[in-house]
Amino acid sequence: MILKGSVLNAQQQDAIKEVGNICVGNSTGILSQLFGGRVEVHLPALDIISTGDISSYVKEKGKLVYGVNVQITAHLEGTIFLLFPEKDSLKIIDKFMSGVDLTGLNFTQFGISILKEIGGISIFTYITTLSSLIKKLILSSVPNFLSGTIDELLHMMLREYEHWGNVCVIHTAFHEESLDIEGGYYLILNKSSAEFILKTIL
Q1: Which of 34, 185, 175 is nearest to 123 (CA)?
Q2: Which of 35, 102, 121, 142 is most buried (CB neighbours < 10 A)?
Q3: Residue 152 above 70 pLDDT?
Q4: Which domains occur in the chain, in start order?
Q5: What is the DSSP string of 106-171?
Q6: Mean of the per-residue pLDDT values for the chain?
């Protein structure tokens, strides 16, 4: 089941959410430049959940999404997702394929490359901001393209972290006005990583 508030008190939760808010603010600034419109960022949500019961956490089960995932290591351990609903992902691809000569190109592979590039840039900005906040270098993996339902993707990723027991999930949703698209970042950390952030900022 969801274990809200069982590890972090109210002050700690607010501090962690503020970190997520700052990171997403910088990341969506990049998206705003790429897409050409203002990005409205919603207040981040924080939950402490069991890795064995992600299905209780995901509210939009069966929702098809495309996105990018990056693993993070060194001082913090976890993973970051940037996910877009299927229809919004297609809007993004259409924007950047407009005027491109597709002769000899594979439409699907080209679209995946666009999303990986955009997601990679945005997530790298997130990680760089987080690294600056904790004053420690954070290493990251090569961006990985993802597609599937949101519950399947999160469940697949958290299986790798079952030994953690509980994880800290910071979810921040946003809306970009020029393309009228929704998206969301998920930062997933183990308990020791959340504690490391708190020791640095409190």
Answers
A1: 185
A2: 35
A3: yes
A4: 10-201 (3.40.1550.10)
A5: -HHHHHHHHHHHHHHHHHHHHHHHHHHHHTS--EE---EEEEEEHHHHHHHHHHTTGGG-EEEEEE
A6: 86
